[in-house]
Amino acid sequence: MKSKWADEFYKMQYGNMSAVDASYYEVQADEIMEQIGKPVDSLLELGAWDGSLAKAMSKKVSHMTTVELVKEMAEAVKENNPGNIEVIHGSFYDVQITDTFDAVIYIEGFGVGTDADQLELLRKIGQWLDNEGCALIDNYQPEHWKKADDIEMRPDPSNNPDVIRRYSYNFEENIIMDTWWKKGHEKLAQTQYLKCYTPEEIDKMCRQAGLRVTVYFPGGAMDYENMRYFEHASLKECMSYRIKIMNL
């Protein structure tokens, strides 16, 4: 990962969010397997966070490999390891992975860095796939995030009421800026920057990388005027959508 902010931001974010119930990841793992659409023996997860999803996925595959940038999170993955997960600490761009996999997943987080960075990562994903392998990648939909510009909220109000986040949107570059700070300490705020892509843009980028999009899976959407979340939304209105890709 080539963005200097990423390591410190994700470490801070992890420390300011309460744990999610394991059942959430079990449901997520079921959804991922349904979207892959076939049995999986080997799986590569990019951006493993603390290993919660990996632990749920490991029950459905013979072997997993995870790549996590933040050292503390990679250590957490090791602690959550049921025995069939290989844990790699490092950047997607620097790690040396010679194995190929039935499936690769990158759940949330795509869009860190420049367009060239995304293209490089997509090419690497293509190299990590078996001949009939597929990848699932979450992408942020710009039409939704334009509406989030200047929205402020508390990401975990029950457990961390002093933590505040503010969304900003760079309309020229189509980048979400997600800024977190503790009440009274805005000067110490940290920000992540995520590039948004329309379905047409990500399709073009995948083709440049030697990949083809076979399916789009739209996610939910937020109504920021009423601060209500809707679980299902159209491909144009969703917060993010997942693509299933394969080598050309």
From TrEMBL:
The keyword Methyltransferase applies. It holds the Pfam family Methyltransf_25. The keyword Phosphoprotein does not apply. Residues 44-133 form the Methyltransferase domain. GO terms for biological process: methylation. GO terms for molecular function: methyltransferase activity. Keywords: Methyltransferase, Transferase. This is Methyltransferase domain-containing protein. It comes from Lacicoccus qingdaonensis.
